[in-house]
């Protein structure tokens, strides 16, 4: 089940276990059950503090993890490999008494949560967003005896997925009711349960001393700006909705110079670790809503708090552009999706459409072709914008159809899920209907700058207008990355523009 290299790495991690734990396998005669039995046996063979026994989970096959002598509170319904292998390793360590690296204050907040919570998270093993949610809920179950959590592989428990009409992952249920969907951090989940936490956090933020540089945004541009500012020895802060930004949703990265291949979450983890090597005050789960100039520059947050700074660097990035057609919002997460890697496995054997013929659209079609029944790519223009090598690959696959000059006009559904879409042939003005179960939207990015339209000069596309030093139309305010007029939205370019903005802000403060 585990190759020699992976087993050696796991053995090293398991040396951190300090208290005995049990693995409880609920099995049947299926091939996946045999895999779980083999996996549990190999793990138990690596450490004498781990025992392997039979469980009685209602979902089979499944693997539960518990402190010896206690009822299990962490369950894996499915084989936790792929992206979820890290979730398994962390669950083993935490059950065995190895401390979590999560904020100590947040852990105490989890221990004190009132009430009983039974969480279930539906995932796909190819989803790079799912492990964050699984690991957060596993930790909560480990810390609080009134919390349980089960990871459920949607591809393995397809009947449950169909009954609950789950069409996007991760999908989280609490006590049988839908709790949330998509990436969620540990802090977000806890704050959703602890209703008084937001007010306390806002009050604490209002008491913070002014910064010399405040970076708004935690993606590659924001991280780079924070590091360059902190290295100047000045008081630096970062405020963001989540650290990593859009890169967290990126799977394969092959054009980051000096690193032949990495994945978004791995790169983000390295960025965050690098930032935290400096005295940077990192604030997450906070959205900026207003920017204004007074004696200092003020950034108002959705929570009601206000942060002040001598200079500000805006690095709020961009998000997926939407089609803005009838039915899109109604069926978002019910067949309308934006991440083929995450949600693709939920459409196994079904017909899907991809909107957009650029690199991301054609790559999505190629990836989906190996999972679904067939893929139809709809491109608005009369030519595809994707690289020639990708187009040739897509055209060589028998279950990919490419339709050019096609304008999507409506998402069709049955009140519960997507059943098709309408598009107009731009040559003939004829309307056609495609019978599809899923629609993957891949039509580019839109800058996260709406909150700045009354404060700064923006381009026609909504990008923040900057000069060669990253300066904006407001003195003391700089910007970097995908939210700006900087051409070519690439990670390496965003990092460079973040460094430019930080040096520009430092130069501004010296001169003023």
TrEMBL record:
Residues 211-496 form the FAD/NAD(P)-binding domain. One of its GO terms (biological process) is response to reactive oxygen species. CDD domains: AhpF_NTD_C, AhpF_NTD_N. Keywords: Disulfide bond, FAD, Flavoprotein, NAD, Oxidoreductase, Redox-active center. Its cofactor is FAD. FAD binds at residues 212-227, 472-482. Residues 123-193 form the Thioredoxin-like fold domain. It comes from the Bacteria. Disulfide bonds join 339-342. PROSITE patterns: GLUTAREDOXIN_2 (PS51354), PYRIDINE_REDOX_2 (PS00573). GO terms for cellular component: cytosol; protein-containing complex. GO terms for molecular function: flavin adenine dinucleotide binding; NAD binding; NADH-dependent peroxiredoxin activity; oxidoreductase activity, acting on a sulfur group of donors, NAD(P) as acceptor. Belongs to the class-II pyridine nucleotide-disulfide oxidoreductase family. NCBIfam families: AhpF. Serves to protect the cell against DNA damage by alkyl hydroperoxides. It can use either NADH or NADPH as electron donor for direct reduction of redox dyes or of alkyl hydroperoxides when combined with the AhpC protein. This is Alkyl hydroperoxide reductase subunit F. It comes from Marinobacterium stanieri.
């Amino acid at each position: 089940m585990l190759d020699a290299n992976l087993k050696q790495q796991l053995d090293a991690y398991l040396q951190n276990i300090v208290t005995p734990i049990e693995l409880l396998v609920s099995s049947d005669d299926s091939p996946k059950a045999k895999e779980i039995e083999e996996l549990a046996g190999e793990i138990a063979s690596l450490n004498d503090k781990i025992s392997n026994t039979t469980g009685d989970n209602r979902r089979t096959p499944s693997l539960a993890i518990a402190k010896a002598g206690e009822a299990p509170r962490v369950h894996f319904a499915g084989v936790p490999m792929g992206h979820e292998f890290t979730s398994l390793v962390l669950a083993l360590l935490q059950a065995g008494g190895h401390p979590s690296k999560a904020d100590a204050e947040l852990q105490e907040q989890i221990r004190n949560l009132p009430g009983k919570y039974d969480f279930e998270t539906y995932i796909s093993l190819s989803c790079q967003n799912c492990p964050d949610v699984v690991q957060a809920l596993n930790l909560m179950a480990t810390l609080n005896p009134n919390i349980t959590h089960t990871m459920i592989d949607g591809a393995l428990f397809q009947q449950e997925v169909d009954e609950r009409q789950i069409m996007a992952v991760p999908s989280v249920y609490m006590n049988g009711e839908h709790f949330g969907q998509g990436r969620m951090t540990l802090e977000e989940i806890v704050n959703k349960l602890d209703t008084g936490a937001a007010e306390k956090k806002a009050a604490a933020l209002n008491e913070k001393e002014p910064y010399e540089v405040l970076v708004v945004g935690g993606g590659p541009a924001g991280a780079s700006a924070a590091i360059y500012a902190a290295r100047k020895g000045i008081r630096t802060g970062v405020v963001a909705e989540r650290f990593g930004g859009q890169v967290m949703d990126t799977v394969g990265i092959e054009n980051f110079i000096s690193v032949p291949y990495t994945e978004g979450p791995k790169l983000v983890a390295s960025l965050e670790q690098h930032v935290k090597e400096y005295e940077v005050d990192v604030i997450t789960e906070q959205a900026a809503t207003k920017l204004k100039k007074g004696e200092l520059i003020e950034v108002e947050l959705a929570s009601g708090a206000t942060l002040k700074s001598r200079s500000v660097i805006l690095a709020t990035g961009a998000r997926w552009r939407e089609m803005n057609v009838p039915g899109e919002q109604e069926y978002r997460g019910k067949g309308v999706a934006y991440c083929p890697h995450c949600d693709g496995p939920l459409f196994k054997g079904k017909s899907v459409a991809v909107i957009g013929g650029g690199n991301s659209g054609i790559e999505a079609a190629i990836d989906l072709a190996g999972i679904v029944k067939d893929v139809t790519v709809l491109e608005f223009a009369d030519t595809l914008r994707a690289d020639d090598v990708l187009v040739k690959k897509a055209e060589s696959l028998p279950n990919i159809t490419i339709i050019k000059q096609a304008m999507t006009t409506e998402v069709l559904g049955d009140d519960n899920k997507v059943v098709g879409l309408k598009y107009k042939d731009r040559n003939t003005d004829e309307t056609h209907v495609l019978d599809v179960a899923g629609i993957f939207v891949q039509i580019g990015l839109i800058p996260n700058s709406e909150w700045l339209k009354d404060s700064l000069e923006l381009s026609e596309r909504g990008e923040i207008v900057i000069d060669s030093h990253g300066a904006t139309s407001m003195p003391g305010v700089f910007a970097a990355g995908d939210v700006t007029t900087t051409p070519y939205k690439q990670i390496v370019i965003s990092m460079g523009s973040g460094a430019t903005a930080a040096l520009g802000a430092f130069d501004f403060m010296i001169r003023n």
